[in-house]
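re the bet — no i am not wrong, look at it urself. input seq straight from the record:
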Amino acid sequence: MAARSFAFFDLDHTLLPFDTQALFCNFVLRRKPWRVFLHAVFLPFALARACKMIRTDTAKRAFNAYLWGLSAEELQKLAREFAATSVERWCYPELRAEMLRHRHQGRVLVLNTASPDFYAHEIARELEFDHCIATEMIVGSSVPLLPTLPRGNNKRDAKITAMCAHIPGVLELTDADRATCWSYSDSHADLPLLEFTGHPVCVHPTMKLEPLAKVRGWPILRPTRPYRTRLGNLLQMMLQVFGMHAE
């Protein structure tokens, strides 16, 4: 039996124009505004990360302090509503078209993201992905102040390791099989994912990724974004973190 072909998609700034951690934070705070005060827990961690005193994994755990005490059921409800509303509004039509093309051509669609699994899986269901790989975050019956990431941050080579371990058929792909597969990302951190396939595609590549993409002749997609510059992206992210971004 011939091996199946895959199409792998990053999420943040690839399918959607935003960092979905900030976008989900905005979604929650617009419904529960008082939770913005829980960002006080994150502030020292943010400063420590800016000074490179702590790892990204630790900062990510602290950022989610605004969810502290939510029951697992309430968190799932929020995540499901977020996926059903925000994905439909913000997902790039050009990337939706790419997904539809790959589905019609018989490829297995995989969302592979560093975003927390509690909403990444809901987004994957909303977009009809076959599989989802995300950063596992232990919630339990209610969200702890600093949720545990048992497998660390799903980034760089960790994305490949997780796919090989959890998605049937990926580990068995030969070089010839991988040459028929596609991958999409905006970030240099996703080089392992882009290089894993024969058809890497860059979506609004970062300044570090774009020169490499041009040298290697990788296609570059530039769908319309709701901001024009890196500063515009940063300003919108700050609004989202404080629940001030329009939905």
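see?? Residues 181 and 247 are 35 Å apart (CA to CA). told u. also DSSP finds eleven helices and six strands in the chain. so pay up
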